[in-house]
Amino acid sequence: MRIAVATALLMAVAIGWGAEPAAADENKQTAATEKERPFKPPGGWRPKRVNGEQVYCTKLREYNSRISREECLTEAQLRDLQRAGRYSREELEKRSRECSGTGCMN
After folding, report:
1. How far apart are CA 79 and CA 87, in angstroms?
2. Distance of alpha carbon 9 from its chain centroid, rounded?
3. 53 domain-assigned
4. Is residue 89 part of a domain?
5. What average pLDDT does this structure show over 97-103?
6. Is residue 64 assigned to a domain?
7. Using an 8 Å Cβ cutoff, are 68 and 54 in contact?
8. pTM of the predicted model, to two decimals?
9. For residues 18 and 1, what is the distance between their CA atoms, to the nearest angstrom?
10. Percent of the chain with pLDDT over 70
11. How many domains does the chain have?
12. Strand order in the sheet with 46-50
């Protein structure tokens, strides 16, 4: 009798875990709402119209020079730039966690 109850309990728990992927659905909904939100450029970037197209511009100072230049990117390019920066940061953190001791050579 105990075996039957234990088996039934384990089956109920397994079915409950099988219904767990609702978290993935929440991530999809969050990603969908991110796309619906208006784009907010990162600090230092200002919206501007160039040839009728919406771009975001920032002033960059050339190394060892007093002259600055303006760099303008579209929303898609700016999102790619943010994504690349986020990926680089994650990779750096991952590598620092792999080898944080004094005996690491890489």
Report:
1. 12
2. 39
3. yes
4. yes
5. 66
6. yes
7. no
8. 0.53
9. 26
10. 58
11. 1
12. 46-50, 53-61, 68-73
pLDDT at residue 26, as a whole number: 54
Range of the domain at 88: 46-97
pLDDT in tens, 32-59: 555 667 888 888 999 999 999 999 999 9
Spatial separation of the C-alpha atoms in residues 67 and 53, rounded to whole Å? 26
Tokens of 17: 């875990």
Beta-sheet strands, E only, within the chain: 46-50, 53-61, 68-73
Q: What per-residue confidence (pLDDT) applies to 20?
A: 46
- Residue 86 corresponds to which tokens in the numbers above? 């986020």
Cβ contact 104:96 at 8 Å = no
pLDDT the model gives residue 97? 76
How many helices (H) and strands (E) would you count in the chain? 3, 3
Domain for residue 16, yes or no? no
Tokens of 60: 């960059």
